[in-house]
Specification:
Layout (H helix, E strand, L loop, with lengths): L5 H10 L1 H7 L11 H10 L5 H14 L2
Length: about 60
């Protein structure tokens, strides 16, 4: 995924989270709709660590300011 614009990436993530994550190389079943289920799947399958999740949460909090 070759995008340099963080706002464009955020908009794409919001529009279609499953497709965005799949293009990023993550294996996410298309039948998951709840963000918490998606996160849980990624963590249970070892695709992301707790630390990586925490980093993403901190970054997301910075966008809300």
């Amino acid at each position: 995924m070759m995008m340099n614009n963080p706002m464009q990436m955020l908009m794409q993530l919001k529009a279609n989270p499953i497709q965005f994550l799949q293009r990023a190389g993550l294996n996410v079943p298309s039948n998951l709709n709840d963000p918490n289920e998606i996160i849980q799947h990624l963590m249970n399958s070892g695709q992301i660590s707790q630390e990586r999740y925490n980093q993403a949460r901190r970054m997301a909090a910075q966008f809300r300011r």
